[in-house]
Amino acid sequence: MEEVIEETTTVEEQVKYSFVVPVKFTNTGKPYSFGTENPDFNTGDYVVVETIQGIEMGIVQAPSVSTEKFPSRHPLRPVLRLATEEDKQNYEDNKTYSKEAIKICEEEIRDLELNMHLLSCSYLLDRSKVLFVYTADERVDFRELLKRLGARLHCRIELRQIGERDQAKMVGGIGLCGMECCCSRFKSRFDNISINMAKNQQLALNIEKLSGMCGKLMCCLKYENDIYTELNEGLPKVGAHVEYEGELFRVTSLNVISKEAKIENYDKFLTLSTDELKEKAIVRKGVSIKHSNDNVKKERIKQIKQDVTTTNIPISSISKESKKEEPVVKTNEEKSKPQNQNSNKKDKKKDTRYNNRPQQNRKSKEPKQPEKAANITVRSFKAKKKDA
Predict the structure, then answer these.
(1) β-strands 129-135, 156-161: how paired?
(2) What residues contact 274, with CB distance under 8 A and at least 6 apart?
(3) Could you give the CA distance from residue 173 to residue 184 in angstroms, rounded to a whole number?
(4) Which of 5, 111, 228, 313 has the most Cβ atoms closer than 10 angstroms to its Cβ?
(5) CA end-to-end distance (rounded Å), the chain
(6) If DSSP codes are grouped into helix, strand and coil, which group holds residue 305?
(7) What is the model's pTM?
(8) For residues 308 and 304, what is the distance between their CA atoms, to the nearest angstrom?
(9) Packing angle, helices 85-112 and 143-153, rounded to 10
(10) Do the strands 46-50 and 117-123 form a parallel or antiparallel pair, or are they unpaired?
(11) pLDDT tens digit string along 181-240?
(12) CB 208, CB 217: distance < 8 Å
């Protein structure tokens, strides 16, 4: 017999609340919404709420608002009560306990030689759980660390690894603008930043200047990106070839804020407004601007003709001067004949220099004379016969 198993799905009933209260915690930058039936919560009140982690205490950021005006898409966690003096005292005591827990955790990390950097530690309001936040370059095996911390702290342990941007948000710092980092001051979530945003705003692609405290691209690159994309719409890029009034030009600079553009070729340099460039210029792809060499050559030929007519130099004299003198080759006999007294002195100096040179160089520079056939007489001697 075949058994048919029916899967039953249990759907938790969502509790509907009449009011919504935004609550912010000390370790988080943005407020979270919680449901309540009490409309008397005001800004600055300390309340005890139930979160996914457990029971925590936070600060109300705005008065209670009706859910009819601002309905929530997600299920809401409840606000348990207004914080009492006992709750506030426990909250202050947890700060001292968290400092001791950090010291214990750092000791165990050194003993186990784990490659991790501990940032913060926080207890829940009822001290049933402690949360450690750390950074690490690689994934860390902290199973042994959890056993040791559980034996010493006697509560639930949670280790949470965060990235470089979250670390900068927790620690804080001052940016290149001289103000506090946006992530730690008012940003509640991180946006996706790309290098194309810097190119769109025509910024110098220097990674050191474009990076923030976290080592990533600065969040403020996205603030004006939408305005630049709107202003750059329909304009050619810098370096593009355009046709303007029947001539080819290259776009050398473009400033969309001042609405000014510069185009140039080998003969002209023009400054236009971005509206004129958008309406009158036509982008030409695959076209290169060539230098007008023909006009330059014609001007040079005219100048040469004018110089020749003004000087009135006979052509025969120009041709004689232009001709190069052929080198005269002298024989050994002509070199040996004394021409003047000065020439004899020069020859003597040359002879002294020649005699002082080493023998190998002298042989190499002496002119080779043809070898004469030597007169050689060959005699043959016959053996004498012995007398009988």
Answers:
(1) parallel
(2) 231, 235, 254, 256, 259, 260, 261
(3) 8
(4) 228
(5) 148
(6) helix
(7) 0.59
(8) 6
(9) 140
(10) unpaired
(11) 888 888 878 888 999 999 888 888 888 889 988 888 999 999 989 999 998 888 888 888
(12) no
